[in-house]
Write a structure and sequence with these properties.
It is a single chain. The protein has 112 residues and is mainly α. Helix content is 71%, strand content 0%. The protein contains three helices and no strands. The chain starts with 10 loop residues before the first helix and ends in a 12-residue tail after the last helix.
């Protein structure tokens, strides 16, 4: 008897990618707003924290889903190319954000 395979869903990889995009946008907004005035520095700190929260969740969700895809692959269940491509895009964006906005070494005294 043949079991029906569930349709491939892309909701989780899209969510991980959306979180990474949100983190990148949050860091960008924080940089743009933070230099305007002293009062805007609070908004800059808030967007910086929100960026790290979003980026952390993108890593957790993307990593968990990539482990799930690896387990599916090892058990010879079909894997959608779209799912793999979306997770790869999410991790590529996460890597770019981490390279652009490192957690340490970004103080005002760096390089001087």
């Amino acid at each position: 008897m043949e079991r029906l395979q569930p349709r491939a869903t892309v909701a989780v990889p899209v969510f991980a990618l959306a979180l990474a995009v949100g983190a990148a946008a949050s860091f960008g907004i924080g940089d743009a707003v933070g230099i305007l005035s002293g009062a805007a520095e609070g908004v800059s700190v808030l967007t910086w924290l929100m960026g790290w929260v979003l980026l952390t969740w993108a890593v957790v969700i993307g990593g968990s889903y990539s482990i799930l895809l690896g387990v599916r692959s090892l058990s010879r269940r079909p894997i959608s190319v779209v799912q793999v491509a979306l997770i790869a895009c999410a991790f590529a964006l996460i890597a770019v954000v981490l390279a652009t906005y490192p957690l340490w070494g970004t103080g005002s005294g760096v390089g001087s």
